[in-house]
Amino acid sequence: MSDIGRWKSRRSPDQPSAHVPEDDLPDAHLDEADAFSVGPRAHSTATALDSKVLVLNKLYMAVRVISAKRAFTMLARDLAEVITVNDGQYANYDFASWAELASFQRQFESDKHEWVRTVRVQIAVPRIIRLLGYDRLPAQGVKLNRRNLFARDRNQCQYCGKHFPTNELSIDHVLPRSQGGGDSWENLVCACIRCNARKGGRTPQEAHMRLVRKPVMPRRNPLIALRLGQDKYSSWKAFLDNAYWSVELK
Questions:
Q1: Distance (Å, whole) CA 247 – CA 137
Q2: N or C: which terminus of the chain carries fewer CB neighbours within 10 A?
Q3: In the predicted model, is pLDDT for residue 98 greater than 60?
Q4: Higher pLDDT, 18 or 95
Q5: Is the pTM of this model over 0.85?
């Protein structure tokens, strides 16, 4: 384990955790946000605060993805702690310990983190936080909407196989509505304007067109799946790979 991995949280195991009101996850007003000043590196700091952080409940189960700005607010209010994953080992840090760890992170792992400048210190953006007083679970179901459909199909027309910008794609009913087709994961696919017009109100067989892949309901939120392909979110896999992931990306 690295030097950073040897650090221990300063929170006592017997210390009571603050209750997380339902409104604090994730829609409460974040009045502590002003504690994070933009400073000289305005652009980079603002970008870092927009980074995504995986939220676990008290039982270490994934419940939501939020911005780093909101994560820092919860940490500053002692509603959450930072979780790190190094070589399969988990470590827990309260906000004070995470801030003190910053100098070691800058020395040994500076390129592995995004950084936020506060009034007193530069602090690394955590990738995962754990809520200390919240043990609820997310609803089991991936929301059916255009954003998630485009993400599931990765902006690829499911008829010609080409990739397009979102504004050049449409949603096609595989079995047309005129033939009883409904709105479901199994009956909706991305299609470019040209292919959609060519297919018209026919089935793929009737239009002599073939689907690139069979449409199915994704096992996890498609936008989360896209993020898991990025190295900086690799630590999320420990909590998502074997879970039914249905959390909305906020």
A1: 10
A2: N
A3: yes
A4: 95
A5: no
Shared-domain flag, residues 134 and 150: no
The pLDDT tens digits of the residues spanning 185-211 come to 999 999 999 999 999 999 999 999 999
Give, in degrees to the nearest 5, the angle at Cα 202 between 147 and 144: 20
Total structural domains within the chain = 2
For the chain, where are the alpha helices, taking DSSP H only? 42-49, 68-76, 95-100, 102-108, 146-152, 193-199, 222-228, 237-240
The mean pLDDT value for 40-53 works out to 67
Other residues' Cβ atoms within 10 Å of the Cβ of residue 228: 14
Q: How far does Cα 50 stand from its chain's mean position?
A: 11
pLDDT band at 247 (very low <50, low <70, confident <90, very high): very low
DSSP code per residue over 98-153: HHHTHHHHHHH-GGGS-EEE-SS-EEEPPSEEEESS------S----SHHHHHHHT
